[in-house]
Amino acid sequence: MGDEAVRPGTAEPDAPALILYTSGSTGRPKGVVLSHRNLLVGAESVSTYLENDADDVILSALPLSFDAGLSQLTTAFATGAHVILVNYLLARDVVRLCAKHQVTGLTCVPPLWIQLVGETWPAEATQSLRYFANTGGRMPASTLAQLRELFPQARPFLMYGLTEAFRSTFLDPAEVDRHPDSIGKAIPNAEVLVLRPDGSRCRPGEEGELVHRGPLVALGYWNDPERTAQRFRPYPSPAPSWRAPEIAVWSGDTVVADEEGFLFFVGRSDDMIKTSGYRVSPTEIEEAAYSTALVRDAVALGVDDATLGQRIVLVVTAPLGAELDPAELTKALKHKLPTFMVPGEITVLPEIPRSPNGKFDRVLLRKEVAS
Question: What is the mean pLDDT of residues 279-298?
């Protein structure tokens, strides 16, 4: 198709373009309304730091109903890259398609990455990979190390995003060795802040809420003005009285920034475990569990308890072909965690349920554990 056949669109930049429903990890799913501007700026921003171009072959293994899955399409459209759409059944299908199509870019969520490192990757499936990217939760350090060994020539991109702003941060691959636990800094064309409840900025090392401002902030929630007003709020800065306030998105996620401005994810406000007077990040417990090499998957939850406020329950699966002894895991965790963070209960399941976006379904797990 020649350039003469391409005609500019007539839609207003800030008109609604589509609705993406959140996975409902902290309640019923919400319909996030994205504008045409959101989609275009998001595609340009992500393809810029991933350095996508027309020579790339992107394997789209995530659902298109998930913002990161849709991003595989939009970045390809923005750069003219070749995108392979796949509705895989097994993790080995992803390996096979990487080999068949000589894939150069692969983005997954942690549960899928954990499965993929357990597969056999022939040279023809890895030789073309230019980058691999993680989103939808923190990747276990052990999984990242295995992926870097599997794909020694590929650059690792650790990303953080929320559906309400499409994508917020990424860690420069050159900084992975120095800051392996960081979610990085703001993506191009966005500003990410760490704020106190009163809207003032947190000091380095002080925990606060991640707030995203810029052209990627969505229009709000579909037919839900109450929850829109809670999450989409005016950016706290002085502005002339004649100017409409800028709307930022308040993520509900707790983060902390270091002296250099690198951001570190602490946890979702709704997922934080409150036990014995402490606020505990489930991510820290899960990372400790992965570091023992005794588990394949791990999800830490807080369950109501009359004495503790919440007791810590760790739901795990055993490594493939192995058995898992909860007592052995508890003993290992006592060497890695303070006493108040050691799970009081460990539940071993054959598989951990997942949401439609491929993430671990914490809502369903919490209901099952509580019952």
Answer: 91
